[in-house]
Predict the structure.
Amino acid sequence: MSVLTAHNVTHYFDGLAAVSEFSLNIEPYELVGIIGPNGAGKTTIFNLITGVYKATRGNILFGEIEIVGKTPSQITSLGIARTFQNIRLFKELTVLDNVRIAHYAMVRYNPIEALLHVGRFQKEEEAIIGHSMDLLAFLKLDTYADELSKNLPYGLQRRLEIARALATRPKLLLLDEPAAGMNPNEVTQLMEFIQWIRKEFNLTILLIEHQMHLVMNICERLLVLDFGETIAEGEPREIQNNPRVLEVYLGEVQC
Amino acid sequence: MPALLVFVFVLSLVVQQFELLDPYIQLIIMYVGINIILTLSLNLINGYMGEFSVGHAGFMAIGAYVASFLTVKVFPADMAAWLFPLAVIAGGAAAGVIGLVVAFPSFKTRGDYLAIVTLAFGMIVKSVIENIDALGGPRGFLGMEKLSTLPWVFFWVLLSVWVIRNLIYSNFGRGVLSIREDEIASDLMSVNTNHVKVLAFTVSSFFAGVAGALFAHLLQFINPRAFDIIKSTDILIMVYLGGIGSIAGSVIGATVYTVLLEVLRPMGIWRMVFMPLVLVLLMIFRPKGIMGLREFRWFVPVRDLFASRLWREKRVGT
């Protein structure tokens, strides 16, 4: 059964079609990339999947559950987590708190227990600290646990965003330009890192990226978007030689 | 720490019983206490959650009027002193229920726009009370006994500090903080922001109502004008003076502002020139207030204060 099925999803911003007739089918454990020029609607697709925008038309199924119309927190609780193009950490909070916040949906104690610190509160809070620190240690961030997240170097902030997303226990992880602002060396490390977390957490991954080096090497399938429309889909090698893609990226072929 | 608190509580009882302190000093201490509760409760919304509420005196008014109505008109006169805690709780609960309703506009609006909503709320409360004859209308309401005493004020200050600390250092409190930092990211990290807002507004207005009830039974006279925008501004000043997102800051802000206003009383009308000047200077040199986003250690639960260290020790142990 597919992890995610988008069927003819269309989204308008005041009459302007940001995404039109978008369809996508992702199988378990697949690593799919979305590429396209700026303004092609890539991030809009992430916002539609995660519930930040509600699709004007079309369906998006996560497993067998329709997620169009659900709130972002509901969708995240079902098992879709994401990172952001421009890092959106909780800047004034510690690294540990950033990850702890992502455990929100796992808490079973009620507000009264929280206000009085009684009942299930103690045990669950300790479990959350345990999980968060274990996860940070796994991603080699535990030494920074008490730092404010805004004080981390850029590369570690990116990694913390992934850690925070993983803390929600996703089945599907959406990465929005994970390599933005990285040098070639760091990109190579990032590729290994993405493949490693996919294996360790048994993830299905959908990613947006501009760095061709990255997408061509790790994605098993690519989608190319231009002005909200899917203009090509297939294995990286096929995409590289697709005339329409070349046109979009390099300008019209003149002979 | 608990021993110290018990000691202060007993001290407040003794002082009350044997009138060891000048009644005027006692009055100031009680004002400080009430202002601490108000500042904490507004800090939860403006400081920790990063919203901007300017109608907090409205919640205070609801607490004050509900509690006063109960002790004067409903409870039998000879029992009023015994039933006073009940009246305070009822005042807080009434304000809490209204706070829950005010939370709903905050789902869609924030920042300046939510400020307008809360401003309107404050105005509504004031004019509704002015038009209820049973509450004395614009003339005000009196007949309360002086039931707010040092031990009671101390008790309620302690309770509000404890409960708000507990809330902040819980799952919901982290939700409150994440709304301040980035509401969209918070929602996308599975935080049910609507639930968190309802809880924060309810708890905050409950304590504002409690403060109102204590205030009414200290002054023994209330009128709608006492709870207008000026009062809300006073609370805002104490929050930003002490520092946003800090319990220690709330305590310091409320204490410094209340005491300073009293100390400067001989300055007469110049007091109201001097105080704002102090605030302007403070905002220039310490824009985050005295304790902005920082906390004294003893307001942080041990589990949170040493979270990473305890985890490391446990890991080494196994």
Observations:
- Chain B has a mean pLDDT of 92.
- Residues 14 and 20 of chain B are 8 Å apart (CA to CA).
- Chain B has one domain: 2-317.
- The two ends of chain B are 32 Å apart (CA to CA).
